[in-house]
Amino acid sequence: MTSRERIILALRGQVPDRVPVSTYELVGYNSQSFENKDPSYASLMDLIREKTDCICMWSPGSTEVFLESSFAVDMNVYDKSTDGVKIVKRVLHTPRGDLSHTYKVFDNVHTTWVTEHWCKNLEDVDKAMSIPYAPVTFNTIDRDRINREVGDNGIIMDSVADPLWVTADLMEFGDYTVWALTEPEHFARTIDAVHIRVMENLRRRLDTGPCDLYRICGPEYATPPYLPPDFFSRFVTPYVKEMTDLIHNYGAQVRLHCHGRIGQVLDFIAETGADAIDPCEAPPDGDIKLADIKRRIGNRMCISGNLQLKLLEKGSTEEVAQAVRVCMAAAKKDGAYIIMPTAAPINTPLAPKTADNYATFIETALEEGAY
Asked: Which of 164, 134, 283, 321 has its CA nearest to residue 231?
């Protein structure tokens, strides 16, 4: 059985020859990703290509400028670099006044840290929403390359944001939760307006030719303790269900991405109709054991997870092997399970201990995963 066949069967809730083994954001078959260009990752990536099942994270280029819109808004960008840190400040000139946003990028760390969000109050939100919506167009010139590289070694997964993420990310996280809790009607109006944009852009994205799988990001912004469960039901489930239905109409599948405490909202997650869920974090990072997730929704969704990255970075060889065995005992039965970490390293160089623990995870998963 090829990796592609194995993953697709698991996503369909069926039983392949063994549990698919994914290394999540460490993608073996994408020559353009940083981990395949960094010498410190080379040996691990060779092992990943040889022995795991690739869920290749890839997205088309787009003309988006701001807030799901390609409208040519006036923006000034200032940046400076000192002591291995690049600081970028952007000033956006909206029809209702200026907004500013600042982020940092550290050398040898493949992520960004936002230190100033666009919106500090509701007036700023209204400024952001005053920018006209122009539908986004997508560039798939890279699709032939990624299809060729992945082949039968796996599937291709695009990532899209739900309207909650797009809306909440306008503000610092604490300010966002206060906004949602104290001004729910204003928050709802904003999400509704963003959802119109998200759906039109998603339709246009799918029209370029669907990927195998779409990861919808953002639901974790409404998990307890940040917001009560009824807010998840109101601000996540109906919107993600519409996105999922549209993706299904194009013949693709959906994986809902939700870190954190999902125990109280698990039924709302299942109501979205998504085919899979990740990363299913175990306590204390989450609030529900993998066996309980399997028991509650394992007949409706493919479960993906739930090895914590910090275990792969800091744990002993035996701790990693035992964690894999626990995952298999909890979720392997009857298929619909893909074992994978909850995240992936973002630092350069890769620590030898992390590479060794990844190897232990992979080898143990292959030993324990046969049906």
From this structure: 164
The answer to whether the beta carbons of residues 45 and 28 sit under 8 Å apart is yes
pLDDT at position 134 is: 98
Spell out the residues 6+ positions from residue 106 whose beta carbon is closer than 8 angstroms to its own: 84, 85, 86, 113
Give the Cα separation of 338 and 290 in Å (integer): 12
Rounded to whole angstroms, the Cα distance separating 229 from 92 reads 35
Cβ neighbours of 112 (radius 10 Å): 12
pLDDT in tens, 151-166: 999 999 999 999 999 9
Output helix, strand, coil percentages for the chain, rounded to the nearest 5.
Answer: 45, 20, 35
Integer Cα distance of 168 and 181 in angstroms: 12
Looking up tokens 């936002």 gives 114
The secondary element (H helix, E strand) that includes residue 171 is none
Predicted local confidence at residue 28, as pLDDT: 96
Q: Shortest CA distance to 106 belongs to which of 88, 124, 127?
A: 88
What confidence score (pLDDT) does residue 77 get? 97
Lookup: tokens for 176: 């966002």
CA 61, CA 302: separation in Å to the nearest integer? 29
Q: Residue 288 is which amino acid? A: I
pTM of the model: 0.97
**Distance between CA atoms of residues 193 and 198, nearest Å:** 9
**Helix or strand run (H / E) with residue 123:** helix 122-129
Q: Is the dihedral of CA 233, 235, 240, 241 positive or negative?
A: positive
Instruction: Tell the burial category of 76 from Cβ atoms under 10 Å away from its Cβ (0-12, 13-18, 19+).
Output: exposed
Spans in the chain with pLDDT lower than 70: none
**Angle of helix 352-368 relative to helix 42-51, nearest 10 degrees?**
10
